[in-house]
Amino acid sequence: MALNDVLPVIVADDKLHAKWLNTLSLMENTGARKISACEDPLTVTYIILKHAAEEHRHAFYLKKQIEKIAGANLPTYAGEYLLAPASSRYYLNQLDVSVSRYLKKELNLAGAELRFAAYLLVTYAIEVRADELYPIYQDILTETGSKVNVKSIILEEEGHLEEMINQLKFFSPDWEHHAAKAVEIETGLFNNWVETLSKELQLVA
What we know:
Number of domains: 1
Order of helices and strands: HHHHHHH
Distance between the termini: 15 Å
């Protein structure tokens, strides 16, 4: 089952939709914390600070959108308030681990250099995914007349992708090769996540 098939089912059910928003908020928050974790206390740049701040804001914004769904009360990121909780937590963490392993093997990086390179490639892959996921989600929200709206996130994610490409060009002349590998890793993990979501929806149904 593809994302285009999963999302209409989620948006049509208020309880599922609220959990979906909470799950997206969790993922944005996880991304923001990972960005902050890779910061060097002395050399952290304006772009990295901006990106971390915006990802935190996205997590908060998605939490606020839950209030537009009648009767929804999801106070935390505890498993009962998420869709596919284990897979949703595993997805970003495993992407970080897998990309880091790739960089160690291919470029022999370690320490701060490894953390920064992993930040670049993981974030690039996530921004590519966000540029696909959020517009699909917004189209369904618009079609169904939902009060929920993610247009502001779409605009910022487009800017993030451009910023990541600019940083990657400075990182390596072979940045496109490394970025493609990160996207390949992310695609496998994302497809597994969507499959887990599909199975959970079948169980709910």
